[in-house]
Amino acid sequence: MARISPPVALALSILALSTSAILVRWSGAPSVVVAFYRVLFTLLLLSPLALVRHRAEFRSLSTRDGAVATVTGVALAIHFAAWFESLNWTSVAASVTLVQTQPVFVAVGAYLLLDERVTVRTVGGIVLAMAGAAVMSVSDLLAGTAFAGTALYGNALALLGGVMAACYVLAGRSLRQRVALLPYVSVVYGACTCTLLLVALAGGDPLTGYPAREWVLFLGMAIGPGVFGHTVVNWALAHVDSSVVSVSLLGEPVGATLLALLLLAEVPGGATVLGGAVVLAGIVVTARAQRLGT
User: Fold this and answer.
1) Among candidates 76, 131, 90, which has minimal Cα distance to 247?
2) Does residue 245 contact residue 176 with C-beta atoms inside 8 Å?
3) Element counts in the chain: helices (H) and strands (E)
4) Which keywords fit this entry according to its UniProt record (predicted)?
5) CA-closest candidate to residue 104, choices 155, 16, 17, 170
6) Cβ–Cβ < 8 Å for 212, 102
7) What are phi and psi of 60, to 5 degrees?
8) For the ranges 73-87, 88-102, 181-195, 218-232, which has the lowest average pLDDT?
9) From CA 213, how far away is CA 197, in angstroms rounded?
């Protein structure tokens, strides 16, 4: 990973993350169960390498950092549970866009808690990106689609997922300055897995008895959005300001919307297309502003 440019790694992670909503939609399992197996399989894929190469880092992990990583994992669990459920109630475009509203909360939190500089151009880029996200989020209501009656509930769940994602990014930015990637994600994913398991058991959702197709989808979510998506984003947090990472992730709604068009026959309206263009413009403005430091 040390040989890979952080911007290139971020671009690849966005491509991987863009497949997440499609894989969730294809699954017929309860949303909490889908989230549980996605994170569990990601943890199982990464933990052997983490234990072999970073045994000393695990032993030296402070109690405070372990506690923060655990709380971060709980936030990630709420993020997944809320967002995956939102995909049952609103369109892919609206859900994936609203869950990425976290740059607003990340920028404020980074300024207040991490002492990161947020420039005027950065704020302008975030505002521009969020304006595009707003246009995309109301497209279902304006167009009178199949989700018109449930879109508000689904959008609210996606927004909750966005708030929790902001907590996840901010905590990761702080911890990743002193904790190696694999030990960090192992603790976070472990806490996330345990939290989702408790939620699934409390809700009476079955954990077994699914056809082979579902297990393939669970594994695909772990390899694509899990390993090449979220884990690469965690790596980037040690090399790029959290505001840049968060706003770059707004490229995910655009990619997910295009995949939904091709694979789910969800045709985006004019408002969705316009909003996606504005989101991309906001990403470019913010990334350039952070690079120039103005």
Assistant:
1) 131
2) no
3) 16, 0
4) Membrane, Transmembrane, Transmembrane helix
5) 170
6) no
7) -90, 0
8) 88-102
9) 21
Q: At how many degrees (to 10) do helices 92-99 and 63-86 cross?
A: 160
Report how far residue 48's alpha carbon sits from residue 154's, in angstroms, rounded to the nearest whole number. 37
Q: Look up tokens 């372990």; give the residue.
A: 66
C-alpha separations of 287 from 27, 52, 77, 103, 129 in Å? 35, 36, 28, 12, 12
Residue 145 has pLDDT above 90, yes or no: no
**Angle at the Cα of 185 from the Cα atoms of 190 and 133, rounded to 5 degrees:** 105
C-alpha torsion 201→205→211→215, nearest 10: -50
What is the SS3 assignment for 162? helix
Return the biggest CA–CA distance within the chain: 56
Q: Which residue's entry shows tokens 């695990």? A: 58
* Confidence check: pLDDT of 185 > 90: no
Alpha carbon separation from 156 to 8, 87, 94, 272 (Å, rounded): 32, 11, 10, 18
- Tell me what the mean pLDDT of segment 76-86 comes to: 93
Domain boundaries, the chain: 6-292
Q: Tell me the H-state helices in 54-119.
A: 55-60, 63-86, 92-99, 102-113
Distance of alpha carbon 158 from alpha carbon 10, whole angstroms: 22
Q: What are phi and psi of 205, to 5 degrees?
A: -80, 130
Angstrom distance (rounded) from CA 179 to CA 256: 31
Q: Amino acid letter at 57?
A: E
Q: Rounded distance, CA 12 to CA 232, Å?
A: 8
Query: Stretch 197-202: mean pLDDT, rounded?
Result: 95
Does 166 have pLDDT greater than 60? yes
